[in-house]
Prior knowledge:
By secondary structure, the protein is of the alpha/beta class. The protein is built from six helices and 13 strands. It has helices at residues 3-17, 114-119, 127-137, 159-163, 178-186, 212-219, and strands at residues 20-24, 50-56, 65-70, 78-80, 105-112, 124-125, 145-149, 175-176, 191-194, 223-226, 239-242, 253-255, 259-263. The strands form three sheets. A nine-stranded mixed sheet has the order 1-13-11-5-7-9-10-4-12. α6 links the parallel β9 (191-194) and β10. α3 (127-137) packs across α5 (178-186) and α5 (178-186) runs parallel beside α6 (212-219). The longest helix has 15 residues, at 3-17. The two termini are 29 Å apart.
Amino acid sequence: MDNSGKVLSGLIGGISSGGIKVVDLSHPLGPDTPMIKVPEGHGKQPPQVSLEYISNYTDDGGFSRWSKLVTAEHAGTHFDTPSHWYTGADLENADTESISVERYVAPACVIDCTAEVEADEDFILTEQYLLDWEQEHGEIPVGSWLLLRSGWGKRVGDADSFLNQDENGTAHSPGPNPEAVRHLIKRDACGYGTETIGTDHGNAGMFDPVFPAHYLMHEANKFGMSSLNNLDQLPPTGTVIVTPPLKITKGSGSPIRVLAMVPGE
């Protein structure tokens, strides 16, 4: 067996023995999944997720159970391709059909800002915050995801709290400013992921450019993930995540089952 085969055997052995723990970073997808409310002037509202039985075992005279699923590409825990934003529209190999599959397996860094978000729901992830984190944990490695742990995933069962919009429709949730996003691009990160419903700060329309986690990241051929779960089970470094979206023709994104591999206890 060559070295590559030994590595793969070691991976399977590690998972079987518990030396490597697999963590599910996704929320269930269904009719209760909170859906983003698109700001006025930025497009149409997405449909609510729905499931309708096509056949339900012997109730319909058959043997199978399966359903019709109606959803949006960017529903629940989901993946954003570079083609999702107009700044990435002209990039090659930038949709769910054409992105190289090797890019769906990558290391991940986790930044814990739970305490800051508890104190201020409008917490802004800045470049200085990233630099301070790097002083302790080392530079964000090339090709890594940066995942923002905020505790927001615990709100997913209450759509109003999860969206957290005020009477004017402004959302109050944490996210990066343009300088932080540019820092990730400078580090050549794979993508940026968050527990909130979208990758941008709730009031990202106040930044220049607006919605920088979309505008800048996708312009730079980087990925996004939203509505992540269980980030509290990941260490700051040393995680590998697997993130393949559905292979939708020219898809701009997809609901996703994100799996993280971390050292076991």
